[in-house]
Structure prediction request, 268 residues.
Amino acid sequence: MAKGSKHARQRFRKWINSYPEVSAWLEKYGDLEQQLDDNGGLVKIENFLPTFVAEGILEMLQGIDEKTWNLTAAGDDYVHNNIRHEFLSVKQGPPGLQDVFRVFTLLLPDSLFTFSAAKYCKAGHIVPHDDRAYTQVLMDDGSMQQCSRTIACIYYLTQGWIEADGGHLVDLEAPGGPQQHLPAFNSVVAFRIPRWHEVKPVTGDRPRYSIFGWFLEPGKLYELNTGEEAPPQQHSEAVHGAAEPEQQQQHAAAAVKQKRKKQLVAVK
Ligand SMILES: O=C(O)CCC(=O)C(=O)O
Ligand SMILES: [Fe+2]
Prediction:
């Protein structure tokens, strides 16, 4: 795609807003739950979206101005869970970003979810953690529903990323020992929660962009970290307990399942 070309941008926006096109494309990945069951709880999908769409999403993230990116703030999961981290994220951003999130929700169409965009600059990272968290979801009828994260999903927008750029996702529960995943452009990693993992510091000068989030299920499906628990291997010193079952209020629009297909159909 010619960078910045208006035509290319329109084409990408049209694609992500076309329910028939998006769902036909995603069909080839089959049932995500099944894939997870068949692959030990973690799946990696290369070339997840058409290249022009990935490039369009990257361009959208690059266009988000500095003021809009939040250093994960009070009330955020990472603060509650006291996980050491350093990266920028955004849930609202430009209107098209919600359209992008909707594409990922089609991987598990009947699930609640919360998605954000992330930008890790040089040294950006997250120390070992297992993603367990409760989330208060505002339902369509105005009621609040307590949910647990069940599946994590990360989509990388890291053009030309090489080993020397750092920012690897390390799966600390891989069967043969910790496994490093290079955050390859236009690839997705999804895994069942809980699963210990970390993000190694970005070492290059280019930002590591991603879309990340979680599928949610109603109820408290597990206990939260007590602070006593350590990840596999030798990383225990890095984790401080998540302790209190504090609940965050997530952006309501990100978690309303009923509307999704209708929205996609409406804007196609
Ligand atoms: O970006 C990644 O590779 C993983 C991010 C992550 O673990 C998280 O946001 O909890
Ligand atoms: Fe995580």
